[in-house]
Amino acid sequence: MTTTIEPAPIEIDPQVIQDDGSSFADFTDELNSFTTSITGSISKYPFENGRRYHAFKSGSYPLPNDELEAERMNVVHHMLKKALGDKLFLAPHRNFHKVLDVGTGTGIWAIEMGDAFPQAEILGNDLSPIQPSWVPPNVRFEVDDFESQWAFSTPFDLVFLRTLCFSVADWPKLVEQVYSNVRPGGWVEFQDLDLQYYSEDGSFNESSATAQWLKILLDSSRNAGRDPCPGPKIEGWVRQAGFQNVVHQKYKLPIGPWAKDKRQKDIGLFNLVQALDGLEGFSMRLFTNVLNWRPEEVEIMCAKVRAELKSKSTHAMYDLHVVYAQKPE
Ligand SMILES: C[S@@+](CC[C@H](N)C(=O)[O-])C[C@H]1O[C@@H](n2cnc3c(N)ncnc32)[C@H](O)[C@@H]1O
Fold this sequence. Notes:
The chain is α/β, with parallel strands linked by helices. It has 8 helices and 9 strands. The strands form 2 sheets. Strands 5-4-3-6-7-9-8 form a 7-stranded mixed β-sheet, with helices on both faces. Strand 3, helix 3 and strand 4 form a beta-alpha-beta unit. Helix 2 runs antiparallel to helix 7, helix 5 crosses helix 7 and helix 7 packs antiparallel against helix 8. The longest helix has 29 residues.
């Protein structure tokens, strides 16, 4: 005798069934509204003392993300390119398929890379979705926190990190994450600053308003757990992570067009423009939140520094450090 066992009826929770007869349609509408709400929350930018700041992981980065800061970042891009002989990067590799720009800012580097390497996919990430939407077809941007665990499915041929001073809480951890996400034989390149101003002719006065402002700025960033001068230390972190063929080069960035050499003069002009535009943005959040200054006090100090920076008699500068290195095959 055979016994037929009837399958138990599948119990369907009536709440799971679509009630509008659209159960076989796709999720386009839901995805769109989810994306809109996510996009809404990451661009619900807080304003403080007249400046706009990032909303995703709010409070973790002290500089604004508004138009003035975007213009400043673009001026810095042109300055750094000029300092490097009109090059976007110095690492020797050229046959890219996948490139990552960590903390892309306005995305200007990623966009120029996309034009220069049309065969490569360029991905830029940042806390702020302030990048343009009209970009080369091989360039993409994502909102992400580069200090969280990275979850890329394939490794990169080049990972690029530029001017992340003020941004990073744990540099060795960041460099290790970079190492894990570069393909064997691939490259990393850091272009970062040592923001300590100095002069070679003694004209940078250590008791000037600029020197005082800079000390307060660098100290408050350190107090907030973000190294404002990572440049000289990057080579050590890169070696420690296991990279090889490490090259470390240092470039002087004059502040103001006082140098004789035409290229250095141009770099100095870009640098002065970005410093004058950036002063308030560098200082406002750190000085008011970390040091409890009043916004008017910050503005008064910035006005004094602005006047000094424009003076022709001070020949101040600071250093750009470029470190590139290869992951062993
Ligand atoms: C000074 S800007 C440099 C932008 C760009 N790398 C460049 O050189 O033009 C630093 C950028 O890092 C981003 N940033 C800071 N902390 C971040 C984090 N934890 N995750 C992602 N982006 C971050 C900021 O939003 C800002 O756009």
